[in-house]
């Protein structure tokens, strides 16, 4: 098993360099090096066969094809327009091009600030995509109390920006992109065209979400330094009444929770909140 392309350094090596050894599923050795040297290795009687390993890259663009989202946009014209979706997670990088933001490091640095707690700066987000949200955790909150430098008490703020450098960072943005990202084309720009006319996204940098024209609310429940949370119930309360005026008619249409725990009891109190939120939606 040999990588398809050797690095400049390994190409000049006197003999192939060992990358790894496998034995559980297939007995083999992964090496990298000059092609002629690898051919010499292949002539060894102990070598049964030499394969090239093709370098892989992270990709999720195929999701739109596998889930038939592309077919749905074309056949129904339904793209999530007018639907309000809350993502309860690590926050949202609303500056990312997938959400219509500038897509620059400068924009992210401006939005995150020193500890991700300042107001959401104007010009760093798309007003049709990022509709609002809340940070229920704060920078150093962690429910387990086992992470150094964290506190058991949250310090909420109005900026649910996703951290990119800490525990769980980017998870909420990835989930939100799967749900309702615009998509990022091959040239790095936000897609602004007609989804019903999209036939293939194979060359895009980021594929669109299933409902690419839905609006997003970022409900951040994880601290940037922490890896666990106990404030999901606060986010569910917010989703039921975003303006907190007691009138639930402005409740969100959909709420996503891509989180969990080991051995959650059947009477987990979060279930009570979820049940009530579901009932309020049915009584609409």
General description of the model:
The protein has 284 residues and is an alpha/beta fold. It folds into two domains: 2-53, no CATH class; 63-282, Rossmann fold. It contains eight helices and eight strands; from the N terminus they run βαββαβααβαβαβαβα. It has helices at residues 8-11, 35-42, 63-66, 69-76, 105-112, 171-180, 232-240, 269-282; strands at 2-3, 17-22, 28-32, 52-53, 84-89, 130-135, 215-220, 254-257.
Tell me which CATH architecture of the largest domain applies here: 3-Layer(aba) Sandwich
Question: What is the CATH class of the largest domain?
Answer: Alpha Beta
Secondary-structure-based class equals alpha/beta
Strand order of the largest sheet: 6-7-5-8
Radius of gyration: 24 Å
Which fold name corresponds to the CATH topology of the largest domain?
Rossmann fold
Low-confidence stretches: 2-13
H/I helix tally:
8
Biggest sheet architecture:
4 strands, parallel
Strand content: 5-15%
> Termini separation (Å)?
60 Å
| Arithmetic mean of pLDDT | 89
DSSP E strands, number: 8
Question: Would you spell out the secondary-structure blueprint of this structure?
Answer:
Layout: E1 2-3, H1 8-11, E2 17-22, E3 28-32, H2 35-42, E4 52-53, H3 63-66, H4 69-76, E5 84-89, H5 105-112, E6 130-135, H6 171-180, E7 215-220, H7 232-240, E8 254-257, H8 269-282
Parallel strand pairs: 1-4, 5-7, 5-8, 6-7
Antiparallel strand pairs: 2-3
Helix pairs in contact: 7-8
């Amino acid at each position: 098993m040999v990588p398809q392309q050797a690095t400049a350094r390994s190409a000049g090596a006197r003999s192939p360099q060992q990358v790894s050894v496998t034995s559980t599923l297939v007995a083999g050795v992964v090496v990298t090096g000059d092609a002629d040297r690898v051919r010499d290795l292949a002539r060894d009687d102990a070598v049964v066969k030499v394969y090239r390993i093709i370098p892989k890259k992270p990709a999720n663009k195929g999701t739109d094809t596998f889930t038939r989202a592309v077919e749905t946009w074309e056949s129904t014209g339904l793209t999530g327009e007018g639907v309000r979706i809350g993502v309860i997670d690590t926050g949202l990088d609303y500056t990312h091009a997938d959400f219509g933001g500038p897509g620059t490091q400068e924009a992210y640095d401006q939005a995150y600030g020193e500890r991700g707690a300042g107001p959401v700066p104007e010009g760093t987000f798309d007003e049709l995509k990022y509709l609002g949200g809340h940070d229920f955790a704060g920078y150093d909150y962690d429910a387990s109390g086992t992470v150094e430098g964290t506190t058991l008490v949250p310090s909420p703020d109005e900026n649910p920006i996703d951290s990119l450098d800490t525990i769980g960072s980017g998870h909420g943005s990835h989930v939100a992109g799967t749900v309702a990202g615009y998509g990022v084309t091959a040239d790095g720009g936000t897609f602004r065209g007609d989804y019903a006319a999209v036939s293939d996204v194979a060359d895009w940098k980021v594929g669109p979400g299933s409902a690419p024209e839905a609006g997003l609310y970022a409900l951040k429940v994880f601290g940037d330094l922490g890896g666990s949370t106990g404030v999901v119930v606060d986010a569910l309360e917010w989703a039921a009444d975003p303006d907190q005026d007691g009138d639930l008619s402005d409740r969100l249409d959909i709420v996503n929770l891509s989180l969990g725990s080991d051995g959650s009891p059947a009477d987990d109190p979060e279930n009570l909140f979820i049940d009530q939120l579901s009932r309020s939606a049915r009584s609409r």
